[in-house]
Amino acid sequence: MSVMNFAPEALKNLFKKPVTTGYPFVPAEYPERSRGHIEISIDDCISCGMCVRCCPCGTLSVDRIKGTWTIDRYDCIACGYCVTKCPKKCLFMKQGYQEPGAEKASVTYTKSPEVLAAEAKKREEAAAKAAAAKAAKAAAAAEKN
Amino acid sequence: MAEVIHPEEILEEIAASDLLKKVMEKKKEGYRLSQICAALIDGKYELSYSFADDVSYQYITYRLVIETDVEIPSITEIIPQALFYENEMKELFGVKVKMISLDYKNKLYRIRQETPFGPKEA
Amino acid sequence: MAKKSVIPYGPQHPVLPEPIHLDLVVEDEKVVEAIPSIGFIHRGLESLVDKRDFNQMTYVAERTCGICSFQHGMGYCEAVEHIFGVEIPERAKFLRTIWAELGRMHSHLLWLGLLADGFGFENLFYQCWRIREKILDMQEMTSGGRLIFSVNTIGGVLKDIPADMLRTILSTIDEVEAELKTVQKTFLNDYTVQTRLKGVGVLTQDQAHDLGCAGPFGRASGINTDMRKLGYAAYPYIDFEPIISSDGDSYARCECRIGELFQSMDILRQAIAKIPNETDLATPVKGNPNGEYFMRVEQPRGEAVYYVKANGKPYVERLRIRTPTFANLPGLCEMLKNTELADIGLLILTIDPCISCTER
User: Fold this and answer.
1) Candidates C223, C309, C330; nearest CB to B80
2) In this complex, do B34 and C305 lie within 8 Å of one another by their Cβ atoms?
3) What is the CATH number of domain C43-359?
4) Longest dimension (CA), chain B
5) B88 in a domain, yes or no?
6) Among A31, A108, A127, B102, whose Cα sits 20 to 30 Å from the Cα of C349?
7) Which residues of chain B neighbour C327 with C-beta distances below 8 Å?
8) Do C320 and B116 touch (CB under 8 A)?
9) Whether the complex's predicted ipTM surpasses the cut of 0.90
């Protein structure tokens, strides 16, 4: 048993530089893997809705026709499950955390007009193809009768 | 390479009337109560009383399958520390446990809804 | 015969880190009986199994507690893996061990700091948390989260720790060890600390066994049990012995946890030396789980039990998490008998209570 065990350490600490940093004047450094928030490269998205189905807190929504991807960042727990599940790998984790705010708000990302136009054209083509196939089938059935 | 002790776990289904006898046996053999768990499966309660041995790491679970209106005796007379587990299953599931040594009377968890995990009224 | 009176203690109290409420029956300054009540922060996590499938539950289980978060996720995953009957890749086992031990180190350092704060040694408290910061940085570097790792998945882990990060971990734990030795000296030899801790809140081995105490709390009373001996993750490949003490007082609990800190460093060094080189990190599982399993994991606070019952649907039928504090509460009440009212705050801290994971 002894006394003043911590005194040398405490004295040393008096003259050492502080271990804390001067945040927010000195910006925080995040390591490379830091799970800050989710970003999307929206033009690669195929609106499959996989991220919506796998999200544990139901914070995502996808609109296939409008080509949008919506996230409520205040509900997101930044677990990164959607990132691992995304088939096109268009979701990724970025450094930097969601900033606090007075009210919850969601962010919507919309695909660029060119991509949207291309997708709409594709859908029209597919619809036309389906209609043609249907007509052919009907014609074949009529012929049989 | 360290020695690994991993005995096979034992799961035994017993009748509600044998419960006190089995618990007494295990206490005499020097087991400690590891946990009590309730589950509501297909309209019946499944209660698991698990005992663990600190030396051999043996894990024994006694399983009671009872109807929802059956009363079961409390084991707090034999193992006083079971009172938290019994209060928990009484409050969350609505299992009828009689003669708990310290009955919290639905105040262990301060929740608005009574028996939230219990059977839903049709 | 002095008059008995009841003093409500908590849930809001300067020394308590967690919302536990105690009704203390006191005679003069002596506590005769303590009746605990919890339940201020029941979140119903276990009932989420109806709404989240078994993969999503990994992330829910992980958020049961902020301190032993990784171990909660690991316990749940190991239970489901047992039901599937899959063997996870060797490297994933070692990675789980490394993360689990880092988690144990930061949890024990946090506890040491809180203890120092509990007996009024602010300087020591800051020193402990300063050391802990280095461990947190390691965790953020390897997993991306300072406390919640989200690296577990059914069948393995999601992220690898490359060799250069492993080397950084090794050099960091060398630094931590050197700093910890100065702290250890103060905790174990200092006169003021010893007078606050020695002989306070004694729990004998028989009492601890009867009340089913787990973890460092039970080991300080001489119960030689450590769930890591069950050989989950990579613990079969690692040499270690449970650290036990027989005094059963607050000092022994402090001694045990400091011992476990050094043991964790030893386990980390062994694991990093033995980790195999594999690129495969997770065994994919097919279909839905069907069966039930009791998984026991040694958390920083003691033995945690995960019971998973599944019936072949994507939604698990019942998930039950029995956390170590739930098992240690009866021991706490027994220990509080015949103690001074002034020691209560410190004594509640010595079981390392984690009430939010107790209530889930």
Assistant:
1) C330
2) yes
3) 1.10.645.10
4) 57
5) yes
6) B102
7) 34-35, 81
8) no
9) no
